[in-house]
């Protein structure tokens, strides 16, 4: 008996390819120098990227890799922190998510980039097995740049 053909993956609106988290850095997240601890920042990055991957795939997703993380400047207690995650390309079951972090004084309103990285997530089914995700094809120059392995 032949296995049933897998149903096509429905198209996903491009608006589901991006997630933003925004909040104030609290004293519980800083080190002795008054700057956000790198581990706290990496947790925020993982949570933001997970939300993006889950929204895009409609599935639970697991972190497979974190690459090219760049800590450009510190985040201070009281800073407004803005994390933006977006799908930049997909494989059959994987999603490459670029995360950029900006922070600054909320009274000034100008946020500067502090960190960025690229993460890969794999969507899994109820049994924990990799499952196909909707295709994302970079269209704009910015999307193509972020999808490049050279970032």
UniProtKB/TrEMBL annotation:
Top-level class of the enzyme under EC nomenclature: hydrolase
Region listing for Disordered, in residue ranges: 131-151
Domain of life: Bacteria
Entries under Pfam families matching the protein: 4HBT (PF03061)
Basic and acidic residues: compositionally biased ranges: 142-151
Gene Ontology biological process terms, A to Z: acyl-CoA metabolic process
Family listed: Belongs to the acyl coenzyme A hydrolase family.
Ranges for domain HotDog ACOT-type: 15-127
Any one GO cellular component localisation term in the record: cytosol
A GO MF label: long-chain fatty acyl-CoA hydrolase activity
The protein's name: Acyl-CoA hydrolase
Organism of provenance: Candidatus Paraburkholderia kirkii UZHbot1
